Amino acid sequence: MINDSSVIQPNIGKRTPIASHLGFKILAPVVVGLIFLIIWQMTCVLMDVPTYLVPTPTVIAVQLFQDAPLLLGSLGATLKITLLAFLCATILGVAIALLFVQSPLIEASLFPYAILLQVTPIVAIAPLIIIWVKNMTAALVLCAMLVALFPIISNTILGLRSVNPGLTNLFRINRASRWQTLVRLRIPSALPYFFGGLRISSGLSLIGAVVAEFVAGTGGSGAGLAYQILQAGFQLNIPRLFAALLLITLTGIVLFGITDWITRIFLRGWHESQL
Q1: What is the DSSP letter of 8?
Q2: pLDDT value of position 186
Q3: DSSP string, 251-262
């Protein structure tokens, strides 16, 4: 006869200490990245790959240091468009989602047009927006916002509708008003979905800003990183091109990290995803 107490129970649903440690989560991708950079460096050196084709990481780092004032200024211009578009997409997306859940008729009538914005390539409509909107900054923000808008709308609507039916009946039995049900039940239930949309939208805002800058082709002192990439490509300055791409990539990682940190602040201690 087997003693139940001697049976080893599987560690289901529990995080191991090493996997949940913040240092481990940071160290693991850093190690993988270093290994990738070492392989990249050695491959380019051993195969004698020309710099104008694929520069080594050390060459890119030197170029980034040399062009830091130019590239960081362009990064500021791109980041300005990205953050404005992200803010506008968040405010407008939440407002649209709250409007849609008030009436099935409103959602059925207008949601297909939100999908239409999502499936329409921004490169196809960006030239029209740039022509119609005289202010270049506003035009770029509008283009980037259209790219980032749909995830917030769809995720927030999904969250507002993903409410426990038992809790809904409890609010109805206690004669809670529509406003009380929205504020005390639907919005808290929608927060995990909303923050998931934010994480997606932050990256899409950056993508939309870069694509809009590519289409606009604006130069001068307020030029973004997309313009520097275009210029570097025309001049065959491939190390600068890679340096600009590196800044865009790092910016996207930082934006995702910030939204993930905000998510942990709001959901820590009560939602299953952060326990």
Answers
A1: P
A2: 86
A3: HHHHHHHHHHHH
Q: What is the pLDDT of residue 35?
A: 94
**Per-residue CA distances from 62 to 57, 65, 68, 235, 251 (Å):** 9, 5, 10, 18, 19
Burial class (CB in 10 A: 0-12, 13-18, 19+), 99: middle
- Summarised one tens digit per residue, pLDDT across range 54-112 is 999 999 999 999 998 999 999 999 999 999 999 999 999 999 999 988 888 888 888 88
Amino acid at 185: L
Locate 222 and state its tokens: 């307020």
Distance of alpha carbon 192 from alpha carbon 97, whole angstroms? 15
The DSSP line for 42-83 is HHHHHTT--TTTS--HHHHHHHHHHTHHHHHHHHHHHHHHHH
In 93-241 the beta strands, taken as DSSP E runs, fall at: none
Is the model's pTM score more than 0.70?
yes
CA–centroid distance for 112 within its chain: 23
